[in-house]
Design a protein that fits this description.
Layout (H helix, E strand, L loop, with lengths): L8 H14 L4 H13 L3 H14 L4 H14 L2 H18 L2 H13 L9 H13 L2 E2 L6 E2 L10 H9 L2 H18 L6 H15 L3 H7 L4
Antiparallel strand pairs: 1-2
Length: 217
């Protein structure tokens, strides 16, 4: 029995399955479902969720990275190489250094080298950088920057620096669904923890990010 107040892996999977089923075009629901599957070592199901996410948002570099990771875990090496090569080029085009480097390492882990980039790929990254456009690190799409951190603390600051106003607005809508579906009561600490975990999953704030910014899980 889970007495921590934070959803177990099985609970998280069930919740995200419900969200993805309710709105099949919600790429973030599919991304969060894929992450929950991946955390549970259900690699094949994780790969399919990330592939659906890529279909909906081809610019999301992180989805390629995790799809490739899941495929390697499932033993689907050829499919992983294809996805990682495409994702590597997408990340390079957008200037997403961390996913690009992670995909290079995943390719090398199966004995492949990352693809050589065409000059126009680097040129596209430079143009995007020079334009000054704010790129949401969650969706990979250009968007508007939030006017200020949505709340105090390192996580609020990270959201301000990395998440577009459009993605944050989407989370507010999704968060309302979470509150209603799970009947959360913020006067209870465990319900606040549950809500916060869903927010982190939705926005892609994983353990690596939390450690980097010095925030508690």
């Amino acid at each position: 029995m889970n007495t921590t107040g934070v959803p177990s892996g099985t609970d998280r999977i069930a919740q995200f399955e419900k969200m993805a089923s309710a709105d099949p075009t919600n790429e973030m629901a599919h991304f969060s479902l894929g992450k929950a599957y991946l955390d549970a070592a259900r690699h094949g199901e994780a790969a399919r969720s990330f592939e659906r996410c890529i279909e909906l948002v081809p610019e999301m570099s992180k989805a390629y990275q995790l799809a490739g990771q899941a495929m390697i875990g499932a033993g689907w090496t050829d499919r992983a190489v294809d996805v990682l090569a495409r994702g590597y080029e997408m990340a390079a085009k957008k200037g997403d250094l961390m996913p690009r480097n992670a995909m290079a390492e995943l390719l090398r882990s199966v004995g492949r080298e990352p693809p050589k980039l065409a000059p126009e790929v680097d040129a596209a990254a430079e143009r995007l950088k020079a334009s000054g456009a704010f790129i949401c690190q969650r969706t990979g799409r250009p968007g508007n920057k939030l006017p200020s951190p949505p709340f105090k603390g390192p996580i609020g600051q990270w959201i301000f620096e990395n998440i577009s106003a459009e993605t944050w607005k989407n989370w507010i809508g999704q968060g309302t669904k979470v509150i209603n579906e799970l009947r959360l009561d913020f006067s209870r600490d465990k319900d606040q923890e549950t809500y916060d975990q869903h927010m982190r999953e939705f926005l892609g704030i994983d353990a690596e990010v939390l450690e980097r910014i010095g925030a508690k899980k």
